[in-house]
Amino acid sequence: MRELGAERNQPTLTDTYRETPPRKKRRGAFLVFAILWLVLIAGGVTGAKWYSDRIQQQVSSDLERQTASQIASMQQDYDIRMTKLESDYKEQLAQMGSKIEALNELLTFAKDNADTKTDNSNKLYSQLAEVKKQLAELKKSLDVLK
Q1: Which long-range contacts (CB under 8 A, 24 or more apart) does 36-40 make?
Q2: Which residues fall within 8 angstroms of residue 2, CB to CB, at 6 or more apart?
Q3: pLDDT one-digit tens code per residue, 84-140
Q4: What single-letter DSSP state applies at residue 146?
Q5: Range of the domain at 97
Q6: Residue 122 to residues 86, 117, 134: CA-CA distances in angstroms?
Q7: pLDDT digits (tens, 9 = 90+) for 17-26
Q8: Where is the segment annotated Disordered (predicted)?
Q9: SS3 content of the chain, % helix, strand, coil (to 5)
Q10: Which residues contact 63 (CB under 8 A, 6 or more apart)?
Q11: 18: in domain
């Protein structure tokens, strides 16, 4: 009998199956494991969403800053060009004004001279006509004297 009892102290195949926990404990462990994985996945998704939003905000602010600096640079260039064009325009306008004034003076002088020249040329023409008449009379006189 001792042998039978000694054999009984050693676990048999059926005894080892009995020592495993019941199925309810296995389901609870699986449920905890599944919930833990779901929490980890949700945390990963939430973290990825937060990180992508943060990166998007940084890119947006960088782009806004670059755009603002480019707009400021273009505005400055535009202002410089407009100032230069305005000064060139005013300079050309002043030159045109002085040229117009000189032309007006020249026209006034020419008009004044044209009036006196016309009178003078009329006087000269009249005098030339008189001289021709006198020459013609002198020729007649000379012909008579010959």
Answers
A1: none
A2: none
A3: 988 888 888 888 888 888 777 877 777 777 666 566 666 777 777 788 888 888 777
A4: -
A5: 58-111
A6: 52, 8, 18
A7: 555 555 566 7
A8: 1-21
A9: 95, 0, 5
A10: none
A11: no
Torsion on CA atoms 117, 122, 127, 133, rounded to nearest 10: 150
Residue 85 lies in a domain: yes
Instruction: Answer whether residue 143 is part of any domain.
Output: no
Which residues are CB-contacts of 11 (< 8 A; sequence separation ≥ 6)?
19
Domain count, the chain: 1
Q: Residue holding tokens 């042998």?
A: 3
Q: Is residue 35 included in any domain, yes or no?
A: no
Full-model pTM: 0.43
CA distance 29 to 38: 14
Instruction: Report CA-CA distances (Å) from 27 to 21, 32, 39, 130.
Output: 11, 9, 18, 148
CA dihedral (48, 51, 54, 55) positive or negative: negative
